[in-house]
């Protein structure tokens, strides 16, 4: 009887793994909730200033008015149509520019000869503002989708290129001495040593590249576009419809944050081995 009661009590006790998992979940939930404190405070203060008439509704409409406008645009299907087009442009430009940036960054990082030949020119192109090349893109590619996607690709290229290159060159040279002792060949050095050590920089470049892709999307949709969230903002500005302008801005902000958070999820999973200062 005593043995049976002991076994039943052990079954009732929560396992250590479950306790650790629940603690992690609670910590993760508290982090998410903390992130909402400042936005909620800003929205409440913003709404109160509008209700009290401290700020004109034409210049800064209340959050409730913006939300109503968002619902109206969503119900008519106008907003969804514009957003789908903008999302496809952003994804297309990011995939093109980000992939090229990653590949060129790897090539330049692994070879000094390629670095000396290619990097000076790329660094020169990197300093050219995106807005400065819009007239050229219009002359070369017209007002169609090609010019917009290429403009987004230009913006997405350089963050991934620079961070991939710096990540590879930032690998501690002492690790190569260990690789020699372990008799690693070149392929093992790249896959088991260099790329894992450079991964934090590469993922940082991915986050920055996504952010720049959303910024470049706005610039791309301002150059003679007739569809997209950027066009919706410009059209609303012409008619002084400030609430629609804010709807477009908030959409860019929300989906830019969601894409950044998605990369951070991959960071947490791929960089579990890191033991960094948490603040």
Task: Give the tags.
279 residues, mainly alpha, 81% helix, membrane, transport, transmembrane helix, ABC transporter permease, cell membrane
In short:
The protein is mostly helical and 279 residues long. It has helices at 2-12, 16-51, 63-76, 78-110, 112-126, 134-141, 145-169, 174-181, 186-221, 229-238, 242-270. Helix 9 (186-221) packs antiparallel against helix 11 (242-270) and helix 10 (229-238) packs antiparallel against helix 11 (242-270).
Topology of this structure?
Blueprint: H1 2-12, H2 16-51, H3 63-76, H4 78-110, H5 112-126, H6 134-141, H7 145-169, H8 174-181, H9 186-221, H10 229-238, H11 242-270
Helix pairs in contact: 3-11, 4-5, 4-7, 4-9, 4-10, 6-7, 7-9, 9-11, 10-11
- What is the number of helical segments per DSSP (H or I, 4+ residues)? 11
- Helical content class: over 70%
Per DSSP E runs of 2 or more residues, the count of β-strands stands at 0
Biggest beta-sheet profile: none
Range of strand content: under 5%
Terminal CA distance reads 52 Å
Q: Low-confidence runs (pLDDT<50, min 5 residues)?
A: none
User: What structural category do the secondary elements indicate?
Assistant: mainly alpha
Global geometry: flat
* Average residue pLDDT: 82
SSE string, helices as H and strands as E: HHHHHHHHHHH
Give the C-alpha Rg: 25 Å
């Amino acid at each position: 009887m005593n043995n049976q009661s002991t076994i039943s009590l052990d079954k009732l006790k929560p396992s250590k793994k479950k306790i650790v998992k629940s603690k992690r979940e609670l910590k993760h939930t508290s982090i998410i909730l903390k992130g909402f404190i400042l936005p909620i405070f800003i929205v409440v203060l913003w709404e109160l200033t509008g209700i009290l008439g401290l700020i004109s509704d034409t210049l800064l409409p209340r959050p409730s008015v913006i939300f109503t406008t968002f619902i109206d645009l969503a119900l008519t299907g106008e907003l969804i149509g514009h957003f789908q087009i903008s999302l496809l442009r952003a994804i297309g430009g990011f995939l093109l520019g980000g992939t090229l940036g990653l590949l060129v960054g790897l090539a330049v990082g692994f070879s000094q000869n390629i670095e000396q030949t290619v990097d000076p020119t790329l660094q020169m192109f990197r300093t050219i503002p995106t807005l400065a090349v819009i007239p050229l893109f219009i002359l070369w590619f017209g007002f169609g989708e090609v010019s917009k996607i290429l403009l987004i690709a230009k913006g997405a290229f350089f963050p991934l290129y620079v961070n991939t290159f710096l990540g590879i060159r930032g690998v501690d040279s002492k690790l190569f001495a260990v690789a020699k002792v372990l008799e690693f060949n070149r392929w093992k050095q790249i896959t088991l040593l260099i790329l894992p050590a450079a991964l934090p920089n590469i993922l940082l470049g991915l986050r920055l590249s996504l952010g720049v892709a959303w910024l470049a999307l706005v610039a791309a949709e301002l150059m003679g576009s007739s569809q997209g969230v950027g066009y919706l903002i410009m059209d609303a500005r012409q008619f002084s419809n400030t609430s629609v302008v804010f709807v477009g801005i908030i959409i860019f902000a929300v989906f830019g944050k969601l894409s950044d958070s998605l990369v951070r999820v991959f960071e947490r999973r791929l960089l579990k081995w890191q033991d960094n200062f948490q603040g």
